[in-house]
Amino acid sequence: SAKQSIFATSSTEAEYIAAFDASKEAVWVRKFISGFGIVTTIEEPISMYYDNIGANAIANESEIAKGARHFRAKVHYLYEVTEYGDVKLEKVHTDDNLADIFTKALAFPKHSEHTRNIGMLPASSLM
User: Fold this and answer.
1) Strand pairing partners for 49?
2) Would strands 87-91 and 46-50 be described as parallel, antiparallel, or unpaired?
3) Domain ranges of the chain
4) Could you name the domain of life of the organism this protein comes from (predicted)?
Protein backbone atom coordinates (compact mmCIF):
# COMPACT_ATOMS: atom_id res chain seq x y z
CA SER A 1 0.00 0.00 0.00
CA ALA A 2 1.25 3.46 -0.86
CA LYS A 3 0.00 7.00 -1.14
CA GLN A 4 -1.66 7.86 -4.42
CA SER A 5 0.26 10.34 -6.55
CA ILE A 6 -2.80 12.41 -7.51
CA PHE A 7 -5.62 13.93 -5.54
CA ALA A 8 -8.86 11.95 -5.74
CA THR A 9 -12.05 13.90 -5.22
CA SER A 10 -14.24 10.93 -4.30
CA SER A 11 -14.00 7.40 -2.93
CA THR A 12 -14.98 6.11 -6.38
CA GLU A 13 -12.09 7.95 -8.00
CA ALA A 14 -9.67 6.81 -5.26
CA GLU A 15 -10.70 3.17 -5.68
CA TYR A 16 -10.47 3.44 -9.45
CA ILE A 17 -6.95 4.88 -9.20
CA ALA A 18 -6.01 2.01 -6.87
CA ALA A 19 -7.45 -0.49 -9.39
CA PHE A 20 -5.45 1.19 -12.16
CA ASP A 21 -2.22 0.97 -10.14
CA ALA A 22 -2.86 -2.67 -9.20
CA SER A 23 -3.74 -3.67 -12.76
CA LYS A 24 -0.61 -2.00 -14.11
CA GLU A 25 1.57 -3.96 -11.69
CA ALA A 26 -0.33 -7.22 -12.24
CA VAL A 27 0.02 -6.99 -16.03
CA TRP A 28 3.74 -6.20 -15.63
CA VAL A 29 4.25 -9.22 -13.35
CA ARG A 30 2.41 -11.44 -15.86
CA LYS A 31 4.70 -10.25 -18.68
CA PHE A 32 7.77 -10.64 -16.45
CA ILE A 33 6.90 -14.24 -15.53
CA SER A 34 6.03 -15.11 -19.13
CA GLY A 35 9.39 -13.65 -20.20
CA PHE A 36 11.24 -16.37 -18.30
CA GLY A 37 9.62 -19.02 -20.48
CA ILE A 38 8.82 -21.16 -17.44
CA VAL A 39 5.15 -20.56 -18.01
CA THR A 40 4.54 -20.31 -21.74
CA THR A 41 1.27 -18.44 -21.50
CA ILE A 42 -0.99 -17.33 -18.75
CA GLU A 43 -4.42 -17.42 -20.31
CA GLU A 44 -6.64 -16.76 -17.31
CA PRO A 45 -7.36 -13.10 -16.62
CA ILE A 46 -5.99 -11.66 -13.39
CA SER A 47 -8.90 -11.33 -10.97
CA MET A 48 -9.17 -8.03 -9.16
CA TYR A 49 -11.88 -7.62 -6.56
CA TYR A 50 -13.73 -4.39 -5.84
CA ASP A 51 -16.64 -3.23 -3.72
CA ASN A 52 -17.23 0.18 -5.27
CA ILE A 53 -19.98 0.08 -7.91
CA GLY A 54 -18.98 3.47 -9.31
CA ALA A 55 -15.39 2.35 -9.92
CA ASN A 56 -16.66 -0.69 -11.80
CA ALA A 57 -18.98 1.47 -13.91
CA ILE A 58 -16.02 3.62 -14.94
CA ALA A 59 -13.94 0.54 -15.82
CA ASN A 60 -16.67 -0.84 -18.04
CA GLU A 61 -17.72 2.37 -19.77
CA SER A 62 -14.96 4.27 -21.58
CA GLU A 63 -17.14 7.38 -22.07
CA ILE A 64 -17.67 8.13 -18.36
CA ALA A 65 -14.47 10.05 -17.60
CA LYS A 66 -14.44 12.54 -20.49
CA GLY A 67 -14.13 15.53 -18.17
CA ALA A 68 -11.21 14.61 -15.92
CA ARG A 69 -7.99 15.01 -17.91
CA HIS A 70 -5.70 13.62 -15.16
CA PHE A 71 -8.01 10.65 -14.90
CA ARG A 72 -8.59 9.86 -18.59
CA ALA A 73 -5.37 7.89 -19.26
CA LYS A 74 -6.01 5.68 -16.24
CA VAL A 75 -9.58 5.02 -17.38
CA HIS A 76 -8.41 4.15 -20.87
CA TYR A 77 -5.69 1.78 -19.60
CA LEU A 78 -7.94 -0.14 -17.22
CA TYR A 79 -10.70 -0.27 -19.83
CA GLU A 80 -8.23 -1.77 -22.33
CA VAL A 81 -6.78 -4.43 -20.04
CA THR A 82 -10.28 -5.57 -19.08
CA GLU A 83 -11.38 -5.60 -22.74
CA TYR A 84 -8.29 -7.60 -23.79
CA GLY A 85 -8.92 -10.09 -21.00
CA ASP A 86 -5.72 -9.39 -19.06
CA VAL A 87 -7.68 -8.30 -15.99
CA LYS A 88 -11.11 -9.31 -14.75
CA LEU A 89 -12.89 -7.04 -12.27
CA GLU A 90 -15.07 -8.97 -9.87
CA LYS A 91 -17.53 -7.53 -7.36
CA VAL A 92 -17.06 -8.58 -3.76
CA HIS A 93 -20.10 -8.17 -1.55
CA THR A 94 -19.52 -5.95 1.46
CA ASP A 95 -20.24 -8.90 3.79
CA ASP A 96 -17.29 -10.76 2.25
CA ASN A 97 -14.86 -7.85 1.96
CA LEU A 98 -12.12 -8.60 4.46
CA ALA A 99 -10.56 -5.15 4.03
CA ASP A 100 -13.65 -3.55 5.57
CA ILE A 101 -12.25 -4.18 9.07
CA PHE A 102 -9.70 -1.45 8.29
CA THR A 103 -12.13 1.04 6.74
CA LYS A 104 -15.53 0.63 8.42
CA ALA A 105 -16.99 0.31 11.88
CA LEU A 106 -18.33 -3.24 11.78
CA ALA A 107 -20.53 -5.01 14.29
CA PHE A 108 -18.48 -7.24 16.60
CA PRO A 109 -19.55 -10.59 15.04
CA LYS A 110 -18.61 -9.44 11.50
CA HIS A 111 -15.37 -7.85 12.74
CA SER A 112 -14.43 -11.09 14.56
CA GLU A 113 -15.22 -13.16 11.48
CA HIS A 114 -13.08 -10.98 9.21
CA THR A 115 -10.14 -10.86 11.63
CA ARG A 116 -10.21 -14.66 11.89
CA ASN A 117 -10.36 -14.97 8.10
CA ILE A 118 -7.24 -12.85 7.59
CA GLY A 119 -5.38 -14.71 10.32
CA MET A 120 -5.40 -12.08 13.05
CA LEU A 121 -5.46 -13.41 16.59
CA PRO A 122 -6.22 -11.68 19.87
CA ALA A 123 -3.05 -10.82 21.79
CA SER A 124 -4.33 -12.92 24.70
CA SER A 125 -4.14 -16.06 22.54
CA LEU A 126 -0.37 -15.58 22.18
CA MET A 127 0.35 -15.74 25.91
Assistant:
1) 90
2) parallel
3) 1-92, 94-127
4) Eukaryota
